[in-house]
Amino acid sequence: MAMTYGEYLALPTLFDAQRPISDHPDEPLFIAMHQTQELWMKQGIHELHQALALLRADRLPEVYKVLARVSRIQAVMTLSWDVLTTMTTTDYLRFRGVLGSSSGFQSDQFRTVEVMMGFRDGPRHGPQTKAAAEQPSLWDEANMAAARAGLPMPEAALSRDWSAPYTPDPGVEAAWATVYRDERTWWPLYQLAEKLVDLDEAFATWRHKHLLTVSRIIGHKRGTGGTGVHYLESTLPKRAFPELWSLRTSL
To answer: Where, in this chain's numbering, is heme bound (predicted)?
Structure first.
């Protein structure tokens, strides 16, 4: 049976999903930008599930490709903030009232991405986030893969409460530092570590651009969900794979 481009992509359904509440001409941009981010996050979650499965199977070269793709997705999401910054403070305030208490802070997919990467100190309102929090994170699986490869990994990193926030471990840092001191011996893990750092950096860059965009549009006002610039600033130092950053000081 013949299939058209529009049918394959379900374009009528997709186009019907933009439903502005106000008559302000900038509200469609606000909706489309956030919906696009949600679509990219959906794809990112799909890719992260692939990365976790490949890590569990010790198929590290295939993990590199998947992590590189997630980093690129994150970069595209970061660039999309530039489009939103063409909307001025005055533009936004003219339709902000129709948003009510809705906020990106409530995004189940964003929280799921955070939890899958290793950030487990935030809210877990949605079903995807709660399910992901019961499983090892990307960092947990990387540490377990490293142990199976022969890296001296502390037991506390291999059998912890997965749902609990991760606490950086000097033993984990020492183990990964071994990789960086002799990358030829540990080349597969060295490559994995660098792909993880790429992803962490891409995520941190997204956070920073989000902060700048919010600051530019609403200043230090509270956001529609009760958060704002001060909250976003507090998230900037967070790293999903902390020991991969701290070990560089000791090298």
So the answer is: 210
* Cα dihedral across residues 136, 64, 151, 165: positive or negative: negative
46 marked as part of a ligand binding site = no
The verdict on whether residue 120 carries a ligand-binding annotation is: no
Structure-token pair, residue 73 = 């997705």
96 annotated among ligand-binding-site residues: yes
Range of the domain at 188: 26-94+102-250
The answer to whether the pTM exceeds 0.90 is yes
Whole-angstrom distance, CA of residue 76 vs CA of residue 214: 18
Tens digit of each residue's pLDDT (9 = 90 or more) over 159-208: 999 999 999 999 999 999 999 999 999 999 999 999 999 999 999 999 99
The number of beta carbons lying within 10 Å of the beta carbon of residue 190 is 16
**Token couple for 55:** 């890590």
Residue 9 lies in a domain: no
Judge whether 198 lies within some domain. yes
Amino acid sitting at position 84: L
What's the domain count of the chain? 1
CA dist 204 and 99 (Å) reads 27
Confirm whether 13 is domain-assigned. Answer: no
What type of residue is 68? A
Any domain includes 166: yes
Identify the CATH number of the domain in which residue 109 sits: 1.20.58.480
